[in-house]
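Progress narrative, work stream C.
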Amino acid sequence: MSASPVATEVGAPKSASSRLRSIVGGSVGNLVEWYDWYVYSAFSLYFAKSFFPPANQTVQLLNAAAVFAVGFLMRPAGGWLMGRYADRHGRRAALTLSVLLMCGGSLLIAVTPSYAKIGMIAPAMLVLARLLQGLSVGGEYGASATYLSEMAGKTHRGFWSSFQYVTLIMGQLLALAMLLLLQRTMAPAELESWGWRIPFIVGAALAVVAVAMRRGLEETSAFEKDRASRPPQSAAATARGLMAHPRAVLTVVGLTAGGTVAFYTFTTYAQKFLVNTAGFSKSDATYINAISLLVYMMLQPAIGALSDRIGRRPVLTAFGVLGTLGTIPLLTALEGARTIPQALTLLILALIAVSGYTAINAVVKAELFPTSIRALGVGFPYAVAVSVFGGTAEYFALWFKNMGHERWFYWYVTGCILASLLVYATMPETRDNTHMDE
C-alpha cells in the first residue's frame, strides 16, 4: 500500500497510513460496542432464570428473546438521533457518544438483582438496559458505516468498509470466548447464579477504553468539507433532505430485510437452535458457533475486495439466490445434525452465503447518500429494517417452535431473503454510481 497522498479522493485522509490508523481506531470501538450487544445473546441461556419467573427452558428463552427484540425498538430512534448528530457534529463525536450509552446499558445489566430478590423490577431493569443499548447500537451502525466508508479510498472502499463486520463478528467471538472461558472455569450452578454478570462488567470497562480511543480519532475529510460549505441543518431540513432520496431509503430497507434475518438466524440464534432443537450440549453449541464465526469473520475482507472488482450488486445477488434456494434444506439438515463436524460444516456453508450481504451492506448504503445526510440515511432506515426483521428473528423462531411448527420459521427466513433478492436485482450498481465521489 502506498503512503502517497490521496487528497484527490473525497473523504480520504491525507495519507494511506493515517487512513489505516483511523480505520483501525474506529473499528476497535465498533468491536467493543458489538461485544456488549452480543454478550446478552451469548449468556441468555444462563441468565434467563435470574430475570424471569420459573418456567420451561423454551419459555424462559422466549422471554429473554422478547427483551432482545425490545432493544431493537430503540434502534430506529438511535439511528435518527445519532445519525443526525453525526451529520451535524461529526462522525467522531457520534461514535464516542454511542460507546458511552453502551457502557451504561452493560453496567445496568451487571448490577441488577435477580427476579427472586426484586420480582418484576428485575425484568423491567433488563428492558431499560436493553433500550439504552438499542439506542447506542442504532447510532453506532450509521456512524460507523459512514466513517469507515468515508475514510476508505475509492479503489478499495468495499475492502476497508468490510471491517465493520469483521469487528462486529469479532465482538460476537469475544462474547463467545468469554462464555467458553467461564464454562470451563466455573460450575454450571455458579455460572447461572452470578457468573453471567462477569462479561457485562468487562464490557462496561472496555467501553470506557473505547471512549478514550475514539476521542482521538481523525474526522473524515468529507464531513469537514461539507460542514465548511453549508450551515447546520434544522431537524425539518434534515427530514426534507432524507425525503429527497426516497428510492435510496427504500433500497436500504429492502436490501437489509433478508440479510438481517439471515444474519441473526445463523449467528445469534444458531447457538440456541443447536441446544434447543438439535440437542447439543451448551458447551458444544458454543464451540460450534465460535468456530463458524471465526471462519465467517475472515471471509468479510475477501468478499469486500471482490465487490471492488466485480461490483456490489453481483455479490448481493449471489447471497439472495443462495439464501432463497438453500435456507430450508440447510436448516432441516442442521436440525438433524448429531456430530460437531456435521453442524459446523452446515453453519459455515450458511455463513459463506450470508457474507455476500454482511461484507458490503455498509458501503452500499453509504454510497447511496450525499455527505450532508449520509449517517442519517444509512442509520435510520437500516435501524427500522433491522428492528422489524432482525430483532424479531429469534423471537419468531422460538415462537414457532413453542407452537410445534418450528419449520414455519425456515419458510419465513426464505421469504425475507427472496424479497431482498428482488431489490438486489433491480437496484443500481453503487460502486460506479455513488454520491461518495461528489
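Work stream C, second folded protein:
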Amino acid sequence: MKKVAAKVKFPIKKGDTVIVVSGKKEVKGKKGKVLSVIPEKAQVIIEGVNFAKRHVKPTQKLPQGGIQEKEAPIRISKVRLICNKCGEVTRIRRIKLENGKRVRVCKKCGEIIDLV
C-alpha cells in the first residue's frame, strides 16, 4: 500500500458521520461515526463497521483469551460524509470567513459543518 504525504487534507475528520459507498457486501451501505483517521495510510476507523477478528492469548487482563472482534480500518476513498443538516451524502468545500477562520461547508445545502 502506498504511503500518503502528510500534507494532504482529507474531507473527513474524527467525529463525522459517514456512509461506506463501496467495498465488501457486509460493509457497503453502513453508516457510522468516525473514531479515528490515519492520514499516513489514508484510512479511517468507523464505529460499528468493518470488524476484524483477532485471536488473543491468555494474559493477566484477559485470563481466558479467545477471539476478540474490533473495528478495522477502511480506505478513506470508500466513505462519504453525511451532512448534519440535510442528512444527505455530500462533498465539502472549504471557505474562509470574514474573521479569517476556515470552515467546511456542505456542497448541497451550504450549511457550515465545522471549523477546519
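The radius of gyration is 17 Å. No further action is required on this item.
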